[in-house]
Amino acid sequence: MNIALIGYGKMGKMIESIAVERGHSVILKIDIDNLDDFTQKNLKEVQVAIEFTKPEMAITNIIRCIEFKVPVVSGTTGWFNRLEEVKRLCTEHNGSMLCTSNFSIGVNIFFEINRQLARIMNCFPEYSADIEEIHHTQKLDAPSGTAISIAEGIISEIPRIREWNLAETGQATSIPHETRHATSLPIHAIRRDSVPGTHSVKYTSEIDDIEIIHTAHNRKGFALGAVLAAEFIHDKKGIFSMKDVLKY
Q1: Quick check: is 139 catalytic?
Q2: Catalytic member of 29, 41, 44, 139
Q3: Which residues contact 238 (CB under 8 A, 6 or more apart)?
Q4: Are 96 and 237 in contact (CB under 8 A)?
Q5: What integer pLDDT is reported at residue 90 of this predicted model?
Q6: Does residue 136 carry a catalytic annotation?
Q7: pTM as predicted
């Protein structure tokens, strides 16, 4: 499979390494220094593009791939407020796209566990919930796209929780149970050096806590998931998710 990498930072380089290990060829690399090479002509032999850039660039990159008839896989977050708009354009152009907040297989399993736990906790209003995410200091968006996906999973299963909110910097993670607002789900976004990504969900009552945690040890899981998504989508038309890739 011939791959184009749109974005060639740390993640792009790791994706390249895994793609080559799996027998693929990276025939085009687009980064800030060669944006003029991002043309339909240069993408002619590309079977799938993998996009990891910045929120302000992602929409343009994805739309360009769709217009050039190249299936695109994107792991950039921070722009999902316009996701429906991009999906509509993809459908209009009979294109192929897969955009996700996290490619990690483990995180996608965590998403499902989170929804199942929330479905159970909906029956127990005495428990309040909060989310904590910890990432490296270079991460630009807060909360993370993964944390937002986790929050949306909880909200979809617990109707009494109507929204999520970003907790103020420095606010204690363990908010006293009696002061929490049942309709709002706080997300604590913490930035520390050299942390690939840790996400936790905690349900707290007066008598006990229930907590689930996913901790990434490195970026390899994200890169592998992106290549698996590219392998899945390269010969398909439509809009897909990691559920389609992992078949759960």
Answers
A1: yes
A2: 139
A3: 96
A4: yes
A5: 97
A6: no
A7: 0.83
